[in-house]
TrEMBL record:
<dbReference type="Pfam" id="PF07993">
    <property type="entry name" value="NAD_binding_4"/>
</dbReference>
<dbReference type="GO" id="GO:0080019">
    <property type="term" value="F:alcohol-forming very long-chain fatty acyl-CoA reductase activity"/>
</dbReference>
<dbReference type="InterPro" id="IPR026055">
    <property type="entry name" value="FAR"/>
</dbReference>
<dbReference type="InterPro" id="IPR036291">
    <property type="entry name" value="NAD(P)-bd_dom_sf"/>
</dbReference>
<dbReference type="InterPro" id="IPR013120">
    <property type="entry name" value="FAR_NAD-bd"/>
</dbReference>
<feature type="domain" description="Thioester reductase (TE)">
    <location>
        <begin position="6"/>
        <end position="255"/>
    </location>
</feature>
<dbReference type="GO" id="GO:0035336">
    <property type="term" value="P:long-chain fatty-acyl-CoA metabolic process"/>
</dbReference>
<protein>
    <submittedName>
        <fullName>Linear gramicidin synthase subunit D</fullName>
    </submittedName>
</protein>
Length: 382
Protein backbone atom coordinates (compact mmCIF):
# COMPACT_ATOMS: atom_id res chain seq x y z
CA UNK A 1 0.00 0.00 0.00
CA UNK A 2 1.39 3.45 -0.93
CA UNK A 3 1.46 6.48 1.35
CA UNK A 4 -1.36 8.97 1.70
CA UNK A 5 -0.06 12.56 1.80
CA UNK A 6 -2.13 14.73 4.16
CA UNK A 7 -1.93 18.53 4.09
CA UNK A 8 -3.16 20.64 7.02
CA UNK A 9 -2.23 17.97 9.59
CA UNK A 10 -1.72 20.57 12.34
CA UNK A 11 -5.24 22.01 12.14
CA UNK A 12 -8.40 20.89 13.92
CA UNK A 13 -9.59 18.39 11.34
CA UNK A 14 -6.05 17.43 10.31
CA UNK A 15 -5.09 16.32 13.81
CA UNK A 16 -8.15 14.08 14.04
CA UNK A 17 -7.45 12.69 10.57
CA UNK A 18 -3.87 11.99 11.56
CA UNK A 19 -5.09 10.10 14.64
CA UNK A 20 -7.77 8.13 12.80
CA UNK A 21 -5.75 7.28 9.69
CA UNK A 22 -2.76 6.14 11.75
CA UNK A 23 -5.13 4.05 13.87
CA UNK A 24 -6.53 2.48 10.70
CA UNK A 25 -2.96 1.52 9.69
CA UNK A 26 -2.80 3.86 6.68
CA UNK A 27 0.83 4.67 5.76
CA UNK A 28 0.80 8.42 6.25
CA UNK A 29 2.96 11.32 5.14
CA UNK A 30 2.14 14.87 6.25
CA UNK A 31 3.03 18.21 4.73
CA UNK A 32 3.57 20.76 7.50
CA UNK A 33 5.01 24.26 7.56
CA UNK A 34 7.07 25.87 10.26
CA UNK A 35 5.26 27.92 12.88
CA UNK A 36 6.79 31.00 14.51
CA UNK A 37 8.31 28.92 17.29
CA UNK A 38 8.34 25.32 16.15
CA UNK A 39 9.79 23.22 13.36
CA UNK A 40 7.44 20.90 11.43
CA UNK A 41 9.03 17.90 13.18
CA UNK A 42 8.35 19.40 16.61
CA UNK A 43 4.79 20.31 15.65
CA UNK A 44 3.91 16.82 14.45
CA UNK A 45 5.61 15.17 17.44
CA UNK A 46 3.70 17.45 19.84
CA UNK A 47 0.38 16.76 18.11
CA UNK A 48 0.89 13.01 18.30
CA UNK A 49 2.10 13.14 21.90
CA UNK A 50 -1.13 14.99 22.70
CA UNK A 51 -3.08 12.05 21.28
CA UNK A 52 -0.92 9.59 23.15
CA UNK A 53 -1.59 11.39 26.44
CA UNK A 54 -5.31 11.75 25.79
CA UNK A 55 -5.81 8.16 24.64
CA UNK A 56 -3.22 6.29 26.70
CA UNK A 57 -1.76 4.44 23.70
CA UNK A 58 1.07 4.92 21.26
CA UNK A 59 0.96 5.94 17.61
CA UNK A 60 3.33 5.43 14.71
CA UNK A 61 4.95 8.65 13.45
CA UNK A 62 4.02 9.72 9.93
CA UNK A 63 6.70 10.74 7.42
CA UNK A 64 7.00 14.52 7.79
CA UNK A 65 7.65 16.80 4.82
CA UNK A 66 8.32 20.46 5.49
CA UNK A 67 6.27 22.43 2.99
CA UNK A 68 3.94 25.29 2.31
CA UNK A 69 0.97 24.96 -0.04
CA UNK A 70 1.32 28.56 -1.21
CA UNK A 71 4.74 27.73 -2.70
CA UNK A 72 5.19 26.09 -6.11
CA UNK A 73 6.07 22.40 -5.58
CA UNK A 74 5.06 23.06 -1.95
CA UNK A 75 8.63 24.38 -1.56
CA UNK A 76 9.92 20.78 -1.48
CA UNK A 77 13.36 19.78 -2.73
CA UNK A 78 13.68 17.55 -5.82
CA UNK A 79 14.71 14.67 -3.51
CA UNK A 80 11.57 15.04 -1.40
CA UNK A 81 9.44 15.14 -4.56
CA UNK A 82 11.28 12.04 -5.78
CA UNK A 83 10.44 10.29 -2.50
CA UNK A 84 6.78 11.22 -3.00
CA UNK A 85 6.87 9.95 -6.60
CA UNK A 86 8.20 6.61 -5.39
CA UNK A 87 6.02 6.22 -2.30
CA UNK A 88 2.82 8.32 -2.34
CA UNK A 89 -0.22 7.22 -4.30
CA UNK A 90 -2.94 9.52 -2.92
CA UNK A 91 -3.28 13.03 -1.55
CA UNK A 92 -5.72 14.23 1.11
CA UNK A 93 -5.74 17.97 0.50
CA UNK A 94 -7.13 19.45 3.69
CA UNK A 95 -5.01 22.58 4.29
CA UNK A 96 -6.86 25.84 3.69
CA UNK A 97 -7.31 29.37 4.87
CA UNK A 98 -10.59 29.89 6.74
CA UNK A 99 -10.46 33.64 6.34
CA UNK A 100 -13.86 35.20 5.56
CA UNK A 101 -12.41 38.52 4.43
CA UNK A 102 -9.97 39.30 1.67
CA UNK A 103 -8.02 42.23 0.32
CA UNK A 104 -7.92 40.65 -3.15
CA UNK A 105 -7.10 37.58 -5.22
CA UNK A 106 -3.40 37.77 -4.35
CA UNK A 107 -4.28 37.49 -0.63
CA UNK A 108 -5.99 34.94 1.64
CA UNK A 109 -8.19 32.99 1.35
CA UNK A 110 -7.46 32.83 -2.41
CA UNK A 111 -3.74 32.28 -1.95
CA UNK A 112 -4.09 29.11 0.10
CA UNK A 113 -7.34 27.80 -1.27
CA UNK A 114 -6.99 28.39 -5.00
CA UNK A 115 -3.24 28.81 -5.57
CA UNK A 116 -2.60 26.16 -2.89
CA UNK A 117 -4.87 23.70 -4.72
CA UNK A 118 -3.13 24.49 -8.03
CA UNK A 119 0.18 23.69 -6.38
CA UNK A 120 -1.29 20.49 -4.93
CA UNK A 121 -2.43 19.40 -8.38
CA UNK A 122 0.88 20.28 -10.00
CA UNK A 123 2.64 18.33 -7.25
CA UNK A 124 0.37 15.33 -7.99
CA UNK A 125 1.34 15.58 -11.67
CA UNK A 126 5.04 15.65 -10.90
CA UNK A 127 4.85 12.82 -8.38
CA UNK A 128 2.38 10.82 -10.51
CA UNK A 129 -0.23 10.82 -7.71
CA UNK A 130 -3.51 9.95 -9.40
CA UNK A 131 -5.93 9.77 -6.48
CA UNK A 132 -7.16 12.91 -4.73
CA UNK A 133 -9.32 13.46 -1.65
CA UNK A 134 -10.27 17.12 -1.51
CA UNK A 135 -11.62 18.77 1.64
CA UNK A 136 -14.15 21.35 0.56
CA UNK A 137 -17.09 22.78 2.52
CA UNK A 138 -20.87 22.36 2.46
CA UNK A 139 -20.96 26.15 2.07
CA UNK A 140 -19.79 25.97 -1.55
CA UNK A 141 -23.58 26.15 -1.97
CA UNK A 142 -23.31 29.87 -1.15
CA UNK A 143 -26.59 31.64 -0.48
CA UNK A 144 -29.30 29.24 -1.56
CA UNK A 145 -32.77 28.30 -0.45
CA UNK A 146 -34.05 24.77 -0.22
CA UNK A 147 -32.23 21.47 -0.53
CA UNK A 148 -28.64 21.29 -1.72
CA UNK A 149 -27.49 18.03 -3.30
CA UNK A 150 -24.06 16.44 -3.29
CA UNK A 151 -23.83 16.40 -7.11
CA UNK A 152 -24.37 20.18 -7.33
CA UNK A 153 -21.66 22.82 -7.32
CA UNK A 154 -22.16 25.95 -9.42
CA UNK A 155 -25.83 26.70 -9.76
CA UNK A 156 -25.61 30.47 -10.26
CA UNK A 157 -25.54 31.03 -6.50
CA UNK A 158 -24.16 34.13 -4.83
CA UNK A 159 -21.53 33.79 -2.14
CA UNK A 160 -21.63 35.22 1.34
CA UNK A 161 -17.86 35.66 1.50
CA UNK A 162 -14.66 35.04 -0.50
CA UNK A 163 -13.93 31.87 1.49
CA UNK A 164 -16.95 30.09 0.01
CA UNK A 165 -16.12 31.20 -3.52
CA UNK A 166 -12.46 30.21 -3.17
CA UNK A 167 -13.51 26.71 -2.08
CA UNK A 168 -15.77 26.41 -5.17
CA UNK A 169 -12.84 27.32 -7.41
CA UNK A 170 -10.63 24.83 -5.61
CA UNK A 171 -13.20 22.07 -6.10
CA UNK A 172 -13.53 22.94 -9.78
CA UNK A 173 -9.77 22.77 -10.28
CA UNK A 174 -9.65 19.32 -8.72
CA UNK A 175 -12.70 18.03 -10.58
CA UNK A 176 -11.39 19.27 -13.94
CA UNK A 177 -7.87 17.92 -13.42
CA UNK A 178 -6.95 15.56 -16.28
CA UNK A 179 -4.08 13.77 -14.59
CA UNK A 180 -6.17 12.38 -11.71
CA UNK A 181 -7.97 9.04 -12.02
CA UNK A 182 -10.09 9.43 -8.89
CA UNK A 183 -11.49 12.50 -7.13
CA UNK A 184 -13.37 12.25 -3.82
CA UNK A 185 -14.74 15.46 -2.31
CA UNK A 186 -15.67 15.93 1.34
CA UNK A 187 -17.90 18.86 2.24
CA UNK A 188 -18.21 19.32 6.00
CA UNK A 189 -20.67 21.76 7.57
CA UNK A 190 -19.50 23.96 10.49
CA UNK A 191 -16.95 21.90 12.41
CA UNK A 192 -16.96 22.11 16.19
CA UNK A 193 -14.98 20.15 18.80
CA UNK A 194 -15.12 16.52 19.87
CA UNK A 195 -18.63 15.26 20.63
CA UNK A 196 -17.39 13.37 23.70
CA UNK A 197 -14.38 15.19 25.15
CA UNK A 198 -15.19 18.68 23.85
CA UNK A 199 -11.59 19.01 22.66
CA UNK A 200 -10.82 21.43 19.86
CA UNK A 201 -7.45 22.69 18.66
CA UNK A 202 -8.46 25.77 16.65
CA UNK A 203 -11.36 28.12 17.17
CA UNK A 204 -13.34 29.20 14.12
CA UNK A 205 -16.97 30.04 13.42
CA UNK A 206 -19.18 29.42 16.49
CA UNK A 207 -16.14 29.70 18.76
CA UNK A 208 -15.32 33.20 17.53
CA UNK A 209 -18.64 34.52 18.82
CA UNK A 210 -18.33 32.51 22.02
CA UNK A 211 -14.85 33.90 22.66
CA UNK A 212 -15.87 37.47 21.88
CA UNK A 213 -18.83 37.26 24.22
CA UNK A 214 -16.63 35.68 26.88
CA UNK A 215 -13.93 38.36 26.64
CA UNK A 216 -16.48 41.12 26.61
CA UNK A 217 -18.21 39.87 29.73
CA UNK A 218 -14.88 39.42 31.49
CA UNK A 219 -14.14 43.06 30.82
CA UNK A 220 -17.51 44.72 31.06
CA UNK A 221 -19.61 42.25 32.92
CA UNK A 222 -21.24 43.27 36.13
CA UNK A 223 -23.88 41.08 37.68
CA UNK A 224 -27.29 42.40 38.58
CA UNK A 225 -29.72 41.17 41.25
CA UNK A 226 -30.24 37.92 39.29
CA UNK A 227 -26.62 36.97 39.91
CA UNK A 228 -25.96 37.00 36.17
CA UNK A 229 -24.30 39.51 33.92
CA UNK A 230 -26.47 41.72 31.73
CA UNK A 231 -25.38 41.47 28.11
CA UNK A 232 -27.92 43.67 26.41
CA UNK A 233 -25.05 45.54 24.77
CA UNK A 234 -24.30 42.43 22.65
CA UNK A 235 -26.21 42.04 19.41
CA UNK A 236 -26.10 38.93 17.27
CA UNK A 237 -26.79 40.04 13.73
CA UNK A 238 -29.10 37.11 13.04
CA UNK A 239 -32.67 35.89 13.37
CA UNK A 240 -33.29 33.57 16.29
CA UNK A 241 -35.15 31.01 14.18
CA UNK A 242 -32.40 30.62 11.58
CA UNK A 243 -30.83 27.17 11.44
CA UNK A 244 -27.12 26.34 11.45
CA UNK A 245 -25.47 23.02 10.64
CA UNK A 246 -22.88 22.01 13.22
CA UNK A 247 -20.88 18.78 13.11
CA UNK A 248 -18.44 17.40 15.70
CA UNK A 249 -14.90 16.96 14.40
CA UNK A 250 -14.59 13.34 15.60
CA UNK A 251 -17.55 12.35 13.44
CA UNK A 252 -16.25 14.23 10.36
CA UNK A 253 -12.89 12.52 10.69
CA UNK A 254 -14.44 9.08 11.31
CA UNK A 255 -16.55 9.26 8.14
CA UNK A 256 -13.65 10.56 6.06
CA UNK A 257 -11.33 7.84 7.34
CA UNK A 258 -13.95 5.19 6.62
CA UNK A 259 -14.40 6.43 3.04
CA UNK A 260 -10.64 6.73 2.47
CA UNK A 261 -9.98 3.18 3.69
CA UNK A 262 -12.80 1.71 1.55
CA UNK A 263 -11.94 2.15 -2.14
CA UNK A 264 -15.48 1.21 -3.21
CA UNK A 265 -16.57 4.60 -1.81
CA UNK A 266 -13.98 6.67 -3.68
CA UNK A 267 -14.93 9.00 -6.51
CA UNK A 268 -18.03 10.49 -4.82
CA UNK A 269 -18.93 13.78 -3.15
CA UNK A 270 -19.91 13.63 0.52
CA UNK A 271 -21.92 16.19 2.46
CA UNK A 272 -20.64 15.78 6.04
CA UNK A 273 -23.66 17.52 7.44
CA UNK A 274 -25.94 16.80 10.38
CA UNK A 275 -29.34 15.12 10.09
CA UNK A 276 -30.77 17.98 12.16
CA UNK A 277 -29.57 21.59 12.25
CA UNK A 278 -29.83 23.71 15.39
CA UNK A 279 -31.29 27.17 15.80
CA UNK A 280 -29.33 30.38 16.29
CA UNK A 281 -31.50 30.83 19.40
CA UNK A 282 -29.98 27.71 20.93
CA UNK A 283 -26.48 28.97 20.14
CA UNK A 284 -27.31 32.30 21.77
CA UNK A 285 -28.80 30.55 24.82
CA UNK A 286 -25.67 28.43 25.27
CA UNK A 287 -23.36 31.45 24.90
CA UNK A 288 -25.40 33.10 27.66
CA UNK A 289 -25.46 30.02 29.88
CA UNK A 290 -21.73 29.29 29.83
CA UNK A 291 -20.86 32.94 30.43
CA UNK A 292 -23.51 33.36 33.14
CA UNK A 293 -25.21 36.10 31.16
CA UNK A 294 -28.57 37.08 29.88
CA UNK A 295 -29.95 39.63 27.47
CA UNK A 296 -27.99 39.05 24.24
CA UNK A 297 -30.14 40.64 21.52
CA UNK A 298 -30.77 39.74 17.93
CA UNK A 299 -30.31 42.43 15.33
CA UNK A 300 -27.71 44.83 14.00
CA UNK A 301 -25.06 45.90 16.53
CA UNK A 302 -25.76 49.42 17.68
CA UNK A 303 -22.76 51.71 17.97
CA UNK A 304 -22.62 53.46 21.27
CA UNK A 305 -20.55 56.51 20.34
CA UNK A 306 -19.67 57.66 23.83
CA UNK A 307 -17.94 55.42 26.28
CA UNK A 308 -17.51 52.73 23.68
CA UNK A 309 -15.09 50.34 25.28
CA UNK A 310 -12.27 48.80 23.31
CA UNK A 311 -13.72 45.36 23.97
CA UNK A 312 -17.10 46.35 22.57
CA UNK A 313 -15.39 47.98 19.57
CA UNK A 314 -13.54 44.72 18.97
CA UNK A 315 -16.74 42.76 19.32
CA UNK A 316 -18.46 44.88 16.69
CA UNK A 317 -15.60 44.71 14.21
CA UNK A 318 -15.37 40.93 14.58
CA UNK A 319 -19.12 40.64 14.27
CA UNK A 320 -18.83 42.47 10.95
CA UNK A 321 -16.21 39.98 9.74
CA UNK A 322 -18.51 37.13 10.69
CA UNK A 323 -21.73 38.77 9.52
CA UNK A 324 -21.79 36.46 6.49
CA UNK A 325 -21.80 33.47 8.86
CA UNK A 326 -25.06 34.52 10.47
CA UNK A 327 -27.62 33.57 7.90
CA UNK A 328 -30.23 30.88 7.45
CA UNK A 329 -28.48 27.72 6.26
CA UNK A 330 -29.61 25.62 3.35
CA UNK A 331 -30.75 22.04 3.91
CA UNK A 332 -27.96 19.67 2.89
CA UNK A 333 -28.86 16.34 1.37
CA UNK A 334 -26.35 13.70 2.51
CA UNK A 335 -27.51 10.60 0.64
CA UNK A 336 -23.97 9.59 -0.42
CA UNK A 337 -22.63 9.90 3.13
CA UNK A 338 -25.50 7.94 4.64
CA UNK A 339 -25.06 5.23 2.00
CA UNK A 340 -21.27 4.95 2.47
CA UNK A 341 -21.25 5.11 6.27
CA UNK A 342 -24.67 4.02 7.55
CA UNK A 343 -23.06 2.85 10.80
CA UNK A 344 -21.61 6.31 11.53
CA UNK A 345 -24.54 8.46 12.60
CA UNK A 346 -23.70 12.11 13.19
CA UNK A 347 -24.09 12.80 16.95
CA UNK A 348 -26.84 15.36 17.35
CA UNK A 349 -25.50 18.67 18.62
CA UNK A 350 -28.01 19.41 21.36
CA UNK A 351 -27.87 21.94 24.17
CA UNK A 352 -25.91 19.62 26.48
CA UNK A 353 -23.25 18.95 23.88
CA UNK A 354 -22.89 22.59 22.93
CA UNK A 355 -22.59 23.54 26.60
CA UNK A 356 -19.91 20.88 27.11
CA UNK A 357 -17.94 22.04 24.08
CA UNK A 358 -18.26 25.70 25.03
CA UNK A 359 -17.12 25.03 28.59
CA UNK A 360 -14.13 23.07 27.29
CA UNK A 361 -13.17 26.02 25.07
CA UNK A 362 -13.42 28.46 27.98
CA UNK A 363 -11.47 26.13 30.26
CA UNK A 364 -8.72 25.86 27.64
CA UNK A 365 -8.77 29.67 27.28
CA UNK A 366 -9.54 29.28 23.57
CA UNK A 367 -6.16 27.69 22.99
CA UNK A 368 -4.48 24.33 23.26
CA UNK A 369 -1.28 23.37 25.06
CA UNK A 370 0.61 20.48 23.53
CA UNK A 371 3.13 18.60 25.66
CA UNK A 372 6.70 19.87 25.42
CA UNK A 373 8.80 17.59 23.23
CA UNK A 374 12.54 17.19 23.40
CA UNK A 375 12.90 14.95 20.32
CA UNK A 376 11.03 16.21 17.23
CA UNK A 377 9.66 13.77 14.67
CA UNK A 378 12.10 13.14 11.84
CA UNK A 379 11.60 15.36 8.80
CA UNK A 380 12.32 13.72 5.46
CA UNK A 381 15.45 15.13 3.83
CA UNK A 382 16.21 17.51 6.71
N1 LIG B 1 -13.66 24.51 10.49
C1 LIG B 1 -14.80 24.43 9.80
O1 LIG B 1 -15.87 24.80 10.30
C2 LIG B 1 -14.81 23.87 8.40
C3 LIG B 1 -16.04 23.65 7.79
C4 LIG B 1 -16.07 23.12 6.51
C5 LIG B 1 -14.91 22.80 5.85
N2 LIG B 1 -13.72 23.05 6.46
C6 LIG B 1 -12.49 22.69 5.72
O2 LIG B 1 -11.80 21.71 6.49
C7 LIG B 1 -10.39 21.84 6.26
C8 LIG B 1 -9.67 21.88 7.60
O3 LIG B 1 -10.16 23.00 8.33
P1 LIG B 1 -9.86 23.16 9.89
O4 LIG B 1 -11.12 23.56 10.53
O5 LIG B 1 -9.11 21.99 10.39
O6 LIG B 1 -8.93 24.46 9.83
P2 LIG B 1 -7.68 24.84 10.73
O7 LIG B 1 -7.80 24.26 12.06
O8 LIG B 1 -7.51 26.32 10.60
O9 LIG B 1 -6.46 24.11 9.98
C9 LIG B 1 -5.98 24.56 8.74
C10 LIG B 1 -4.76 23.74 8.40
O10 LIG B 1 -4.26 24.15 7.12
C11 LIG B 1 -2.88 24.43 7.25
N3 LIG B 1 -2.44 25.45 6.31
C12 LIG B 1 -3.03 26.63 6.03
N4 LIG B 1 -2.28 27.31 5.16
C13 LIG B 1 -1.18 26.53 4.88
C14 LIG B 1 -0.04 26.68 4.07
N5 LIG B 1 0.17 27.80 3.36
N6 LIG B 1 0.87 25.67 4.00
C15 LIG B 1 0.70 24.54 4.74
N7 LIG B 1 -0.38 24.34 5.54
C16 LIG B 1 -1.29 25.34 5.61
C17 LIG B 1 -2.74 24.96 8.68
O11 LIG B 1 -1.38 24.92 9.04
P3 LIG B 1 -0.80 25.81 10.25
O12 LIG B 1 -1.10 25.04 11.50
O13 LIG B 1 0.64 25.90 9.92
O14 LIG B 1 -1.50 27.13 10.20
C18 LIG B 1 -3.61 23.94 9.40
O15 LIG B 1 -2.92 22.73 9.55
C19 LIG B 1 -10.20 23.08 5.40
O16 LIG B 1 -10.07 22.67 4.04
C20 LIG B 1 -11.51 23.84 5.58
O17 LIG B 1 -11.80 24.65 4.44
C21 LIG B 1 -13.63 23.55 7.73
Amino acid sequence: MGYLLLTGATGLLGRYLMRDLLTAGVPLAVLVRRSRRKTPGARVEAAIRSWEEMEGRTFERPVVLEGDITQPDFGLTPDQTKWAAENVNAMLHNAASLSFVSTGRHAEPWRSNVDGTKHALEFCRQANIRKMFQVSTAYVSGIRDGRVYEHELRTGQEFANPYEESKVEAEELVRDCKHLDSVTVFRPAIIIGDSKSGVTFTYHNYYVMLELAHKLTEQLGSQDFTGRGVANYINLDAKSEWNKNLVPVDWVSAVMSHVITHPEHHGQTYHLTPRLPISVRLMRDVIEQVNNLYGINFGKPVKIENNQSLALELFHSHSEVYSSYWRADSIFDSTNTQRAAPHLICPHVDRDMLVRLSEAAIENKFGWKDPVVDEPAKVLGA
